[in-house]
Design a protein that fits this description.
By secondary structure, the chain is of the alpha+beta class. About 20% of the residues lie in helices and about 35% in strands. Helix 1 links the parallel strand 1 and strand 2. It is elongated. This is Replication protein A subunit. One of its GO terms (molecular function) is zinc ion binding.
Amino acid sequence: AMVGVNISDLAVKMAKNPRMLVDVFGVVTEVGAVRSVKRKSDGSELQTREVTIVDDTGKSVNCALWGELVDKECAEMEAELAAKPDSALLVALRHVRPTSWNGVSLSSLSKSKVVLNPDVLVADCARASGLRRWYEQDGGKQTAFVAAGEGLSGALTAGGSPGGDGLTPEQRANDRKSFDALKVDNPEDRSLAEKEYANVRATVVYIKPDQNLMYLAAPDGSNKKVVDNGDGSFWCEGLGKSFTSATNRFIFSAKAVDSFGSETWLNMFNAEGEALFGKTADEMAAMEKEDRERCIKGAFWQSGVFRLCRQLREWQGERKVRVNTLSMSKIDYAAESRLLLAAIKSGC
């Protein structure tokens, strides 16, 4: 369902449902230069331009327009801004998706539409006419606009807990999503800097036994990878020095299923490995193959609340979706029951 929102509300809407599409009204203040982005899958090029819009909440947001919208609508906006610099150039962005790029931004999809000066349409008249009056007559043009994503672009808060999602710590702890919220329809069209966060109640159902579950790390607490030189020393390329010892740390992938029945592969690290296997990585490394496989199977069907971050990475010329586990906590069934009851009462 389409939801019309003010620019100032985008962060909250995106945090609740990262895959929602929105309609946004605004005044165009800038049209960026044309950029070409090459698809890694087939080498073809896509053109894109960023359009900056503002509204009477005092916020601004950038929207990346793609494909045919660059050739026609962006060119029309650029021409009208040059011809009428003192007039409000109104725009209705329909079926666009909020993203966490630069905190909060918008991106067009194949179904997106751009309507210029929508106050000529009866359905849009009240909102659009109000924006025009505000910008041209009530001092809107002189407003010192603040970016809608200001303060939300960090991956971690000062306390070390995952942020960047527009939620308070309490809201973040109580927020629950499905793996579907982390899916990406067209990875080639998305920025590598874009991140999405989610708390998911899920169960580990499979861990490949033949994968490398751990790596050798420097013993100084930096967790940097080291290479065994074979002579009792270990070289760290990242730190540029050798060590006389090394420690094992977990890093592996696991398939998990959420409470809605959706599944995905999660990248997990040392803390999650110790929680799932009940062993340290050094203890696991010392095990015989059969004992190690039994330990891996013992991690199956363990449930928890996973704090996740979805990122895009380049791999062999293509963009791949990676879902990293930031933390894993045991399920507090009383607390989860209260969250479910609250969701039922709110109709979600």
